[in-house]
Automatic annotation (TrEMBL):
Record domain NAD-dependent epimerase/dehydratase: where: 4-229
The protein's name: L-threonine 3-dehydrogenase
Family: Belongs to the NAD(P)-dependent epimerase/dehydratase family.
One Gene Ontology biological process: L-threonine catabolic process
Gene3D superfamilies, per the entry: NAD(P)-binding Rossmann-like Domain
Molecular-function GO terms, alphabetical: L-threonine 3-dehydrogenase activity
Amino acid sequence: MKKILVTGALGQIGSEIVMSMRKTYGEDNVIASSRSKGKNDVAETGIFEIVDVTKAQQVADAVKKHKIDTIIHLAAILSATGENNPAAAWDVNMNGLYNVLEVARESQCAVCTPSSIAVFGPSTPKDNTPQNTLMRPTTMYGVTKVAGELLCDYYFQKYNVDTRGMRFPGLISNVALPGGGTTDYAVHIYYEALKNKKYTCFLEKGTYMDMMYMPDALDAIVQLMEADPSKLVDRNAFNITAMSFDPEEISAEIKKHIPAFEMDYDVNTNIQKIADSWPNSLDDTEARKQWGWNPKYDLAAMTKDMLDKLSLKLN
Ligand code: NAD
Ligand code: AKB
């Protein structure tokens, strides 16, 4: 990776990966982009372009202008937002990806597109979910993510575009808020614990999902994109995980640091239905074998770091 374009760069992942990659690859070698320019360090401290991924010409112009060799494609509509507006989820997630892949084919760029645990559905085995298994998702987000994995495979097989991607679980972070997903409760809970010592959870107790702390997610993107291609049997559909917990377990971990913290429940049945259709825990053996995936943070280490960082931010 020498000249990198990040789409959807003002979101939860983009807000952190752009700053981190600028340190590694050089300030002028990481171009942030989104469909509009928001107030954000990413847009204000380095090169920024307006790129709406549903507009192929805007993607092509940015790639040409900056002689891009790698696209980190993060522009997307996530699960909960996608269920409220399935047409927008289809448009951004499918047409946006198609535009990025076409430009990558023409300009010979590598492409990283994160997939998600949302590719799985109610008929998928729920525990230690294998990488290759039944995938019949019941959300529009999940449908676009499965189709996206296949489309990326297709561009590699047919056109030799260097496409790579991992199935992220819920990501927990303290820089940008999450963008409308089913796993967002596991971020909000830390903010509310510090602000109000109280959180009302929109998922039921016993709802287990895979999760990961953002520093591990950033490492995953760089590690996979820098991996030796000859070792990659799979390319666009790597299961990766760092931990699996339910609301009770994250709440108990927070209570160790904030004894007065209390959580109650007001379940959102629409979001609960999505969570119930996803695995309890993934098997990420192939990522470990093929490119050395090895997360650093478990629930205890993440909770300590989240509370330390957020205390500084919120004070
Ligand atoms: P996010 O919602 O925080 O950010 C996505 C960004 O894309 C937003 O800033 C949004 O404004 C932008 N965007 C939307 N439509 C656009 C368009 N037409 N053109 C350009 N930009 C547009 O999402 P994220 O959490 O940063 O996720 C990035 C990628 O990682 C997505 O593909 C997502 O599916 C995947 N992922 C994320 C998680 C997670 O927990 N955050 C988990 C699994 C997979
Ligand atoms: C969401 O909940 O939609 C995302 C994801 C797991 O893809 N966090």
